[in-house]
């Protein structure tokens, strides 16, 4: 019981950290939006991604923090908070690594494939990256709770998949590569130690999915 209590306490602590990280991230994005709006969106033009422009490569990092309008940032904020929290609640350190990978893959993908005549900005590539990460993390980490979360998110936000398809006037390239970056992050940052065994250890007894899920919930004190 004591071990279960510690596990639950750790999970609650990480969930609180994840909550504050996402609140802080949104606060930063909205603060930047105020300055961006006041400047007539000069920041988006100057620090957004311009495909095939070598000087714009550093803008891969700044572009996710910039938007083109209030409706643009409003549309991204809800999914960013939800998917970001679900991506971070098992560990903020891993979450930051996954975020860095998503930003890199999404930005480079847009830089290589988008129209050179357009300037890309917005957090939607990161949103799709978190979405992809949530969908696969449970399978890679072998956490039944996260598998359930991934299935629920896929069903509730199935319309998001349309954003991965080519569309006029939308930076679908950042969406697609962000999604792929999230899937890659699920594999690269998976919990490898769960599958490690010493040569003398015997395999654990097989459990039904329902029993395994109930055990995970019990370990968390739920």
3D architecture notes:
- With 222 residues, this protein is mainly alpha-helical.
- It contains 9 helices and 2 strands.
- It has a two-stranded antiparallel ribbon.
- Helix 5 packs across helix 6.
- The model is unreliable at 195-201 (pLDDT under 50).
Structure keywords:
single chain; 222 residues; mainly alpha; 9 helices
Brief description of this entry?
With 222 residues, this protein is mostly helical.
Number of strands: 2
* N- to C-terminal distance: 13 Å
Order of adjacent strands in the largest pleated sheet: 1-2
Unreliable segments (pLDDT under 50, ≥5 consecutive)?
A: 195-201
Topology order in helix (H) and strand (E) letters:
HHEHHHEHHHH
> How much strand?
under 5%
Helix content: 55-70%
- Main sheet characteristics: 2 strands, antiparallel
Give the count of helical stretches. Answer: 9
Structural class: mainly alpha
What gross morphology would you assign? Answer: globular
Overall pLDDT level: 89
* C-alpha-based Rg, rounded: 19 Å
